[in-house]
Amino acid sequence: MDSSDVQDDLEHVLYTKDQIQQKIAELAAEIDRDYAGRDILLVGVLKGAVMVVADIARALHSHVAMDWMAVSSYGSGTQSSGVVRILKDLDTDLTGKHVLIVEDIIDSGLTLSWLKSNLASRGPASIEICTLLRKPDAAKVELPVKYVGFDIPNEFVIGYGLDFAEKYRNLDFIGTLAPHVYQ
Ligand code: 5GP
Ligand code: MG
Ligand code: MG
Predict the structure, then answer these.
(1) Which structural domain, as residue segments, surrounds residue 93?
(2) Which of these is catalytic: 93, 107, 137, 151?
(3) In a domain? residue 170
(4) Is 107 a catalytic residue?
(5) Burial (0-12, 13-18, 19+ Cβ within 10 Å), 168
(6) Which of 34, 81, 113, 129 is 20 to 30 A off residue 107, Cα-Cα?
């Protein structure tokens, strides 16, 4: 879907399809440089990261394997609590692997902070994080993130994997919703 399909639901477009794809190419070039000669295990966090993983994986020249995790964060309403339950674990043994966790967005950072230490305890050779979006003003934990696409203001965004009530994940751009959609 593109912006013409959801015109009435949109407040504004934050990043166009072209801007996203350009950033994906830059991130992939950086990752290729850093991992030269090493195979990478991309760990995507379902469901939001599906688009980012699919596009990054295709933009990389490095050999990659892909695996997926689904987690749910306990918490009241929309606030993430940092207490995480694994809904779907990896199929892959991480021993000796170069793990790159790929995320759509880091908000409080609580979920990813938990996930990183969980995966780090499984004996990988290295573990880093790549996220397309990050909200620096929402950070609740200190979380080193090696690859960041865009730092964005603290507002709710949708598209390119990100949903509102499971809708809008298949937009090819990232934007904000008009208030009438969620009020
Ligand atoms: P954190 O633990 O960093 O607060 O939670 C991150 C998760 O919250 C993301 O993976 C995503 O599912 C959800 N999230 C945080 N901010 C947004 C946003 O602006 N839009 C959407 N659609 N989901 C968000
Ligand atoms: Mg996510
Ligand atoms: Mg969601």
Answers:
(1) 19-155
(2) 107
(3) no
(4) yes
(5) buried
(6) 34
